[in-house]
Write a structure and sequence with these properties.
The chain has about 600 residues and is α+β, with helices and mostly antiparallel strands. It has 3 domains: about 260 residues, 3 helical TM bundles of succinate and fumarate reductases; about 100 residues, Ubiquitin-like (UB roll); about 200 residues, Nucleotide cyclase, GGDEF domain (Alpha-Beta Plaits, 2-Layer Sandwich). It contains 22 helices and 13 strands. Strands 6, 7, 8, 9, 10, 11, 12 and 13 form an 8-stranded mixed β-sheet that branches. The longest helix has about 40 residues. It starts with a helix and ends with a helix.
Length: about 600
């Protein structure tokens, strides 16, 4: 009881004011609840339309499957879940209409909005059969009654029902598209999903039409008609139509009007509260208090990435806050979850623009380019915005590639360089590292992105030895084609660096920046002067727990650094493997030796 009481008090406190209620709703994930409710309704719609499509085979099959359809969806828990989901989805849709600050919709968004608002009106008459059962204890509907009533008694309603079918299906498919397009499997699954989306509505329409003709033919038999078609008494029908065709449209119109009245009242309140300054790179705008950063960008035409449309799903709208963060509200539960998913939760300066509602002046810089799309999100589940990390950098450079190209065709030169880079990269991967950048005939490899420093240092040394072995095998393989064996140089150094995505628009790469990377590059260049294959810094040897016996120790000056550093040079990089094996060798206990 003591655990639950604060939560109850907190909810009541939030509900006491509209702004607090909005924050509380955002915290529990309003859009996720709305999506879950939409999926429940989509399951019902799909089953219902599939039932219609069976009419292409026969009317009997439609009625047979309808019994299973009704049995499942009339189970108390399923039935209550369906109606609760429909009510919540509808109310949250109105809530989203109220929350939206800018009506700059794309064509697909405005289609979904208009179709979604029209569904209740189109559904009103269709819902009359269920309403009649609840009010007058009528038996569950069957296809005979519905098809005869629409196709024979009121043919003009056929167009209304087919319009309802198309509108509901398009609205649902757009919602599913917005959700699924960010999923990794969407690229290969989209053709199959599109086929279902395109084929099911016409199949449902043709199946219903064919079933209606069968019903009309069978209804010519008075006995069949009396057994299968139970007409609604006129007084009951009048009562149902008054509710569905008169009172409900009035109530629905009043609800929509109240939403826009509430929006107008909010505008007046925001004007009374004043405005704040939102600073972007090269631009400042005055924005009413209460708007999110993304809503401010949309209202004032500031280019800003937002693949999901501000629904806190894609994280592409996030910004770096470069002003004082003391007055900013803390991240909601949903915002914290999304930031943690992309690895940005450790940096308090990174916020989601679609969730951040600043109360005071703020300066932000969008993290991602404004033109990123759904492919960017699908292909990169984790976007690296920059963090400090201990990394061991290893530069590998192929010697004499220019001289090699002088006597060969361009294709042959590229082929040999690719084989060298393949041999080096495979060694890096096998040792536990990550090939990072390819510059001409050189390679930068990183170790320690997911391991501790000691392991990273040992992995880098193991990789250098494996590079030497792989290149030696390559030289043996191409001995008849090479005048001289392929030579290479390796430089290894570790330290704290910045890792993140660097580049412009679509041309970005994940890499490491810092003094440690530059030192590794300098050591690789130094292998030429010291006439060796690989040079490793003393810091890496110490962290790896390796005694550099057999390596040439030198104290060298590094360009760009004030102090000299101690390094160890290896004439053959395979020496590193021997040092690692010697370090891993555990001496036998003295008791065992005496025995």
């Amino acid at each position: 009881m003591s655990v639950q009481a604060p939560a109850i008090i907190d909810v009541r406190q939030h509900a006491a004011e509209p702004a607090g209620l909005m924050r509380w709703l955002r915290g529990i994930g309003v859009r996720q609840v709305r999506l879950a409710c939409g999926l429940v309704m989509f399951a019902y719609i799909f089953s219902h339309f599939f039932n219609h499509a069976l009419g292409n085979y026969s009317y009997e099959l439609m009625e047979t499957w309808l019994t299973f359809h009704i049995w499942w969806w009339r189970l108390p828990i399923v039935n209550y879940t369906l109606y609760l989901a429909a009510a919540i989805h509808f109310l949250l849709g109105l809530w989203a209409l109220y929350q939206r600050r800018a009506f700059r919709y794309t064509a697909i968004e405005i289609t979904q909005l208009i179709f979604g608002l029209s569904i209740p009106l189109l559904l009103a008459y269709h819902f009359g059969a269920r309403l009649g059962g609840a009010m007058f204890d009528r038996p569950p509907p069957n296809y005979a009654v519905a098809l005869f009533g629409f196709w024979v008694n009121r043919p003009y309603m056929v167009a209304v029902q087919f319009t309802l079918l198309a509108v509901v299906w398009i609205h649902a498919c757009i919602g599913l598209y917005f959700w699924l397009r960010l999923k990794p499997f969407f690229r290969w699954a989209s053709p199959f999903l599109l086929a279902i989306a395109v084929l099911l509505p016409p199949l449902a329409m043709t199946g219903t039409h064919r079933g209606a003709h069968e019903v009309a033919e069978r209804a010519a038999n008075p006995q069949w008609r009396s057994q299968n078609i139970k007409p609604t008494p006129p007084p009951q029908r009048a009562a149902i139509e008054n509710i569905t065709l008169y009172y409900f449209p009035l109530a629905y119109g009043a609800a929509i009007s109240l939403i826009f009245a509430a929006r107008g009242a909010r505008v007046l309140i925001e004007r009374h509260r004043g405005s704040i300054t939102v600073s972007y790179p090269g631009r400042k705008v005055r924005s009413p208090r209460g708007l999110t950063i993304l809503e401010t960008s949309i209202r004032y035409g500031v280019p800003h990435a937002s693949v999901c449309g501000g629904k806190a799903r894609c994280s592409t709208c996030r910004v770096r806050v470069v002003s004082d963060r003391g007055a900013l509200p803390p991240p909601s539960g949903r915002e914290a979850f999304v930031l943690a998913r992309v690895g940005a939760s450790a940096n308090p300066a990174i916020r989601l623009a679609c969730q951040l509602r600043p109360r005071a002046d703020v300066a932000v810089i969008p993290v991602l380019p404004a033109n990123v799309g759904a492919d960017f999100v699908r292909n990169r589940q984790r976007i690296n915005i920059g963090e400090e990390h201990y990394v061991v950098s290893m530069f590998i450079d192929m010697r004499g590639s220019t001289k090699l190209a002088e006597a060969r065709l361009p294709f042959d030169t590229v082929f040999l360089i690719n084989r060298f880079l393949e041999a080096a990269s495979q060694a890096v991967v096998d040792a536990g590292g990550q090939p990072n950048q390819f510059v001409g005939d050189g390679l930068l490899a990183l170790f320690g992105l997911d391991t501790d420093p000691a392991t990273a240092c040992r992995q880098a040394m193991r990789a250098a030895a494996m590079v030497a072995s792989n290149v030696e095998y390559m030289n043996h393989e191409f001995a008849s084609e090479l005048q001289e064996p392929v030579q290479f140089g390796i430089g290894i150094h570790g330290g704290e660096v910045i890792i993140g995505d660097i580049g412009f628009r679509d041309h970005t790469v994940f890499t490491a920046l810092g003094d440690a990377v530059n030192v590794a590059a300098r050591l690789q260049d130094m292998t030429k002067a010291l006439n060796c294959t690989a040079i490793i810094s003393d810091d890496v040897c110490i962290n790896a727990g390796v005694k550099p016996e057999g390596l040439k120790r030198s104290e060298v000056a590094i360009r760009g650094r004030d102090q000299a550093m101690i390094v160890h040079a290896a004439a053959d990089a395979t020496q590193f493997a021997g040092l690692l094996d010697q370090q891993a060798r555990v001496p036998e206990p003295e008791a065992a030796i005496s025995a």
